[in-house]
Amino acid sequence: MATVWSASSGYMFIGIALSWSGNPASGSVTVTAEVTACSDGYGHDWTSQWSWWGYSGSGSAPFSFHSGFGQTVYKQISKWSFNVPLKYGSTTKVGIGASLGPIWNGGRPAVENYITLPARPISAPNAPTGVRATRVSDSQITVSWTAPLSTDARPVGSYMVERRADESPSWGVVAQVRGATSLASLNVSAGHRYVYRVKAVNSAGGSAYAQADQVYTTPPPRRLTSVLRKTLTAISSLPGVIKPPTHPLGGIYTTARRVSGRLH
User: Fold this and answer.
1) Spatial contact of 115 and 84, defined as CB atoms under 8 Å apart
2) ∠ CA(167), CA(168), CA(172), 5° rounding?
3) How far apart are CA 260 and CA 264, in angstroms?
4) Containing H/E element for 236?
5) Which residues contact 209 (CB under 8 A, 6 or more apart)?
6) Strands of 256-259's sheet, edge to edge?
C-alpha cells in the first residue's frame, strides 16, 4: 500500500497508507489504514498525542517519539481495519485523516488519504414478459412488452428488439429501446410473416428472450392456378356457356351459363 505523507512540520512527518481486501461481489470489502510518524533528520524526544478522523470515526490518543540528531526514524502509530459496504454499479470513496501534536517545538503535521473502492457487480436483468406484435398496417407493426422488475442488483438499461421474417432462421436487430416498453416497427411490407422477440440488457449482459406470436401483413393478390384455369376453360367450352372475358393480366372475371334464355 502506498503511503501519503504530510509536509514537514516541526521536523516531523505523518503518513497514511490505505488498502482494501475482499470480494466485491459479497457486497462489502475490508479497508486497512496504517498511520506512521517520521522524523525529518532532527533529534526528537517527546510525548504528545495524535488524532484521526474520517470514514471509520474520529479520536485521539497519546504518542511518544524519539530519534537521534540527523536520523530519519519511522515509527508506526496505529494500524486498524474496518468494513465498507459497496454500491451496485458505482464506486465508493472513503478517506482517513491524521495529525501529530502539537509537539515540543510547535509542529503539527497533518495529512489525509483517500481510496476508491470498486463497485459491487450487477447481474443481467430479468426478462420482459407479455411481448405482443400487432399489425397496424402493411408498413407498420407495433411491438409492446411488460417491463421486468428492475433492481439495484439487476437493473434494466435498455431493451433489444429483434425480428425474423417468413422462413428465415436468422434474427436481425430492429432497435435498441431505452425508457420505453413499445416500438413502432416501420420497415415491414405486405406479403410477409414476422416474428419479434425482446430481451432486457445492461452492462452485465442480457436476459432471456421473450417472443411474440407471429404476425402477418396482407398477402398480395393471388393469380389463378393453372389447374383452375384449365377447369374454367373447359367449362366455358361446354354448349350453352358464355365464354368469360379475359383480364389483361391473365385472370378471369366471372363465368355465366345460359339457362332458359337467362344468365345465372
Assistant:
1) no
2) 140
3) 10
4) helix 226-236
5) 127, 162, 197, 198, 199
6) 241-242, 256-259, 262-263
Question: Rounded to an integer, what distance in angstroms lies between the CA atom of residue 152 and that of residue 189?
Answer: 41
Local structure of 130: helix, strand or coil:
strand
> Which residue is listed with cell 393480366?
249
Write out the E strands in 156-255.
Answer: 158-165, 172-177, 182-185, 193-202, 205-206, 210-211, 215-216, 241-242
- What is the phi/psi pair of residue 108, to 5°? -150, 75
**Residue whose entry in the numeric block shows the C-alpha cell 525529518:** 40
Structure confidence by residue, pLDDT tens digits, 69-95: 989 999 999 999 999 999 998 999 999
| Dist. CA 100–CA 47, nearest whole Å | 10
- All cell numbers assigned to 210: 421473450
3-state secondary structure of 166: coil
Cell of 150: 428492475
Contact 175, 208 (CB under 8 A): no
Q: What would the pLDDT profile of 232-250 be if each residue is shown by its tens digit?
A: 677 767 776 555 555 444 4
pLDDT-derived band of residue 208, with 50, 70 and 90 as boundaries?
Answer: very high
Displacement of CA 72 from its chain's centroid (Å) = 52
pLDDT over 60 (residue 259): no
Give the whole-angstrom CA distance, residue 162 versus residue 169: 12
